[in-house]
Design a protein that fits this description.
The complex is a heterodimer.
Chain A (H helix, E strand, L loop, with lengths): L6 E10 L2 E11 L4 E5 L6 H8 L9 E9 L2 E2 L7 H6 L1 E4 L10 H11 L5 H14 L3 H4 L12 H13 L5 E5 L7 H14 L4 E5 L3 H7 L2 E6 L2 E7 H6 L4 H11 L1
Parallel strand pairs in A: 3-8, 3-9, 6-7, 7-8
Antiparallel strand pairs in A: 1-2, 1-4, 4-5, 9-10
Helix pairs in contact in A: 3-4, 3-6, 4-6, 6-7
Chain B lengths: L1 H43 L2 H6 L3 E2 L4 E2 L2 H32 L2 H16 L2 H20 L12 H25 L3 H8 L5 H30 L2 H6 L17 H8 L9 H35 L1
Antiparallel strand pairs in B: 1-2
Classes of the chains: A alpha/beta, B mainly alpha.
């Protein structure tokens, strides 16, 4: 068992209903790098991402076996407490889902839950995270306006700031740019590249160019199985498996 | 052939319009009809006398509706105070916490409650709620109560509006995207924190709409209430006092003592009053709801 990486997956199998969604997944996600999970839709890549912070718990008929180790702790062990595990990860979903409250309260939501009450501390945190996501200049005059007033690209950056505010070590992105325009997509991608200095980032994407632009490593999943994984350049330009070759063919040409 | 198709299309759309207007106009027809029949009593007594005096002696020509209005408000108010927290927590449990298996068992039970005829709720109230209040609840608070009280009416009503509120709130909660909950959960929030700070906030307009519908229903509920609330034309001063809501007044007396002058007109006025109260209540709540939605959207 490799204890060095923040996220490790051992013999993970996920069944939803009668379907075997993920089969014998074994991976170690490299720290402080961007790792992209690619694959055709329905291959299980989003499911894999959601096993990392146990968001599958709420879905019906899910059966999970195997281990997901976060910081060396098996998060599927009996009695594992889920909120502190989730606190270690910021999730950026397909579409931005700002909470029904102001911009300020969105960012302060997590810290407040985890016990930060002093206004001064919160102010500081909110400013810091909004600056980290490049949103500060755009919203500093209307922090107490509703978050739904922001453009969708701004909302996604707000969601990122909200995730960073709880002090995670990991950022999970589930096709985080699929609802965004090209400019906002670019801003988010740049943010990922900047943020990998401090965070371990795992992205799910079906856009190979995006995987090429932002990631250091790629995991290719097909029909619930890991087909190939390795450094981005290797997987995209010099794939070893026939399936990977087929899949990335469109990218190379 | 070609023209016939177009004609059918036009004909059907017009037909639907006419039928829709016809059913909506029933509202106005009822309102106007009730007003028309209330004119005699409105001529004899002033509106403020009718609404604010408490003496109900039809034989002497005294028609004070104040006790009935208060009876209606007490019973309805009590029912909402009891039902709302109960319904909210039930709907939240069914939607946010219950495993799919339990949800499938619970939902039909809740719906079954709404299919029970009101008179059975009335009987249940007389057999169980009245003795419960008389022997076990009231003695702790007041010297004497027969059990027939606005509290009994409120409890029976609360049970009756329960399935309505639960099913509407359940529908509202279902429209809230799971991703929004996930957004909160993934920040390390517990289920309850997510429910309280995100789900309930998002569902608030829907919850208010549910309550409004339930109150409208409670205002008008007749048979079950009149069986348990004592039907005594005095203003209730505590929950253990009997009350006499407007629908009970109408149902108990219409067709019986119509030889007394003005009596039928007085009952029509009671109906008009109920009609107007429910109408006003609906209008006001709609305005509040629209404002709230605008505020949430901005």
């Amino acid at each position: 068992m490799d204890n060095k990486s923040l996220i490790g997956v051992q013999q993970l199998n996920v069944h939803i209903g009668n379907q075997h969604i993920l089969k014998d997944i074994n991976i170690d996600i490299p720290d402080k790098k961007v790792t992209s999970i690619i694959g055709p839709s329905g291959c299980g890549k989003t499911t894999l991402l959601k096993t990392f912070n146990r968001l599958l718990d709420n879905s019906a008929d899910v059966k999970i076996t195997g281990e997901v180790l976060v910081d060396g702790e098996n998060i599927y062990a009996q009695g594992a407490e889920v909120t502190h595990i989730r606190q270690k990860m910021g999730l950026l979903s397909q579409r931005p889902y700002p909470l029904p409250m102001s911009i300020y309260d969105n960012v302060a939501y997590g810290p407040r839950i985890h016990g930060i009450r002093k206004k001064h501390d919160l102010d500081e945190l909110v400013e810091k995270q909004l600056k980290a996501t490049g949103l500060w200049e755009e919203v500093k005059d209307r922090l107490h306006a509703s978050a739904t007033r922001l453009s969708i690209g701004q909302q996604q950056r707000l969601c990122l700031a909200r995730g960073l505010a709880v002090g995670p070590e990991i950022i999970l992105g589930d096709e985080s740019t699929s609802a965004l325009d090209p400019v906002s997509t670019h801003i988010i991608e740049d943010l990922f590249v900047q943020l990998k200095e401090k965070y371990t980032i795992v992205l799910v994407t079906h856009i190979l160019r995006q995987a090429a632009r932002v990631s250091d490593n790629i995991i290719f999943i097909y029909m619930g199985k890991i087909v190939e994984m390795g450094p981005t350049h290797e997987v995209l330009h010099n794939p070893k498996e026939e399936l990977t070759k087929q899949y990335v063919k469109g990218f190379i040409t | 052939m070609y023209k016939l198709r177009l004609f059918k299309d036009k004909f059907m759309s017009k037909l639907m319009l006419v039928l829709t207007l016809a059913s909506v106009s029933v509202l106005f027809v009822i309102g106007i009809g009730l007003y028309y029949h209330s004119i005699p009593i409105l001529h004899k007594l002033s509106l403020s006398d009718l609404l604010t005096t408490s003496v109900w002696k039809p034989l002497k020509g005294l028609f004070g509706f104040y006790p009935f209005i208060m009876g209606t408000l007490w019973v309805t108010g009590i029912s909402i105070i009891i039902a709302l927290p109960l319904c909210l927590l039930t709907a939240l449990y069914i939607n946010e916490y219950a495993p799919a298996r339990i949800r499938k068992i619970l939902t039909p039970f809740v719906n079954l409650l709404s299919g029970i005829p009101p008179v059975i709720f009335g009987v249940w109230g007389v057999l169980f709620i009245i003795p419960l209040i008389q022997d076990h609840i009231a003695p702790h608070f007041v010297a004497f109560s027969t059990g027939y009280s606005v509290l009994a009416g409120g409890i029976v009503l609360a049970v009756m509006i329960f399935p309505l509120i639960v099913s509407i709130i359940t529908e509202v909660l279902r429209t809230i995207p799971q991703d929004l909950r996930d957004a909160s959960l993934s920040l390390g929030a517990t289920g309850w924190e997510t429910t309280r700070k995100v789900v309930l906030k998002k569902a608030l307009p829907g919850i208010i709409a549910a309550v409004v519908l339930a109150i409208s229903r409670a205002f008008g509920e007749t048979i079950a209430v009149l069986m348990v609330c004592g039907n005594n034309a005095v203003v209730p001063h505590s929950v253990f006092d009997p009350g006499y809501p407007l629908p009970a007044l109408i149902a108990n007396n219409y067709g019986e003592m119509l030889s007394i002058p003005m009596y039928d007109s007085a009952l029509m006025f009671a109906a008009l009053l109920l009609f107007v109260i429910i109408l006003l209540f609906n209008i006001i709540s709609r305005v509040i709801l629209a404002r709230l939605e605008r505020k949430l959207a901005s």
